[in-house]
Amino acid sequence: MTISFDPAAEWLETDGRGGFASGTVSGRRTRRYHALLLVATTPPTGRFVLVNGFDAWVETNAGTFAISSQLYAPDVVAPDGEKRLVEFGREPWPTWTFQLEDGTVVEHDLFVPRGHSTVALAWRLREGSGGAQLHLRPFLSGRDYHSLAHENPDFSFDARQIDGRIVWQPYAHSPTIWAWSNARYDHHPLWYRNFLYEAERQRGLDDTEDLASPGEFHWDLTAGRAVLLLRATSGERDVPLPGESAEQCFQELAANERTRRGQFASPLERAADACLVRRDSGQTIIAGYPWFTDWGRDTFIAMRGLCLATGRLDAAREILLAWANTVSEGMLPNRFPDDGGTPEFNSVDASLWFVVVVHEFLQESWTVRNLSPDDRQTLQAAIEAILAGYTSGTRYSICCDDDGLLAAGEPGVQLTWMDAKVGDWIVTPRIGKPVEVQALWLNALWIGSQFNPHWQSPFEAARAAFTSRFWNPDRGCLYDVVDVDHQAGVVDASLRPNQVLAVGGLPLMLLDEERARRVVDLAEQQLLTRLGLRSLAPGEPGYVGRYRGDVAQRDRAYHQGTVWPWLLGIFVEAWVRVRGTTTKAKQAAREKFLPPLEAHLQTAGLGHISEIAHGDPPHTPAGCPFQAWSLGEFLRLKQRVLA
What we know:
The protein is built from 15 helices and 36 strands.
């Protein structure tokens, strides 16, 4: 038997509230974010890591065998359970199979039921002729999910027994952990020191942690399945768990989850479901796991695939209406801080992406039938407020200039999607008139003109200015920015992927046939990789082909050559458009561009698509392994653009 997945590949289970469980195929935790029980106390924010992991071992007549592994500093793997892992599956949830030296086979299941701050774990004896005792020691922290824990006297090892559950509360400010099992529990507190997280070390971050283990659970596997339910409780909002016993609860949760997961049309659509979570009484989109929450720009780019292409139009309605009520001075927030602080409006394009998504949502037949006049008016009023605010001028020198194009930017602020910042240094400031912002602005004006003729004249003026001012005859493509730093006539001719939005990815194609084809051909020659488009072409000043090093080094590379898979959806749509959007062109695109991403679903974040990849071959995936807009654009490609 062999493992069909890379042992370093990561799995993800989500609870629909912003909490999740995640780890690697090998079982070895490689990130501070890998945890069994990670919950959002103010969904989808306020995340706490409560149960980080566990050590487990099986005792048979032939001896004692580990079925877990940890990495400790400096580079010590102990115990050696990963060498007994012979099978891993991820449908309908992560399942590990271990074969012990005496032939005993133990299967381990793990899933997170939707709507519960709970993780369900089970082990069963699949093969074995003698006794088999399972022992497990959990590791607890009770920390913010971005931080690391260290041994300290304030941690509470106290264990209460309530209604057959073991109850811990690591700190007075942390949620309570309930452990419900069919095991015998022995209280025996210990600190485990110097867990090492390889991914954090590679990212130049703090990488070692101490974890508390309050005791051990013991099961006789020959008597039946071993069950452990770990749950965080926070009061009256908690949904009761079913069943009279831990075993019955596990059975009911598993049956419900199997049915729920089976209702999705494909594993990709189920992966999309992981990105949709509750915020207050509505829904929102998590930009990526394990470290992002919800962001404006990411939400609107992702939801065309995650919601519109998958038919989740009720969710789209909830999300769009919620955001429509946040317009301020013509802008939508780009980020709501985890601590509940003041929303951040540092984005020129998030509001424009919102306009595009509203337009596409309103084109859906379901929307035409089911959207109330009041809701339609709310969405259109938000579009009006954005166009009016941008026209008259708003934060960060965002305003419609005399030529009809949209100017934006001030020193020290990163407003476009190329938003890396190192201290006070903005790596790609792009102050002036960035090309993709003009493509979005023109599309937004055109959309506004569909229900208010007032915007027709500004649209025509801006389109004429775009056509005359952005073409670079020397390179046969578009400038990346004109009027750089608000200096008339100064241009940035860097070869970046932003110009592709003038051809694909938006309702309107803004270039004539010849120029559009030249832009797409150049992007294919210089920017295209198997996983997406480079953010800067090789050979351009400042190109960085490897995304690695500490925070500052990685941020310098983030938009200076790093590959972005979400851009592939825009590029492929442009590629098909310049070939007439024919059936033949779509078929050629499916064969040419989709297989590498299909293969990528089996690596990095399993079933998902990574945030980024290295610009240089072999384009190793990097960044966030479960990225919403990467997955969303892949879904949009498969189910809309190439359908």
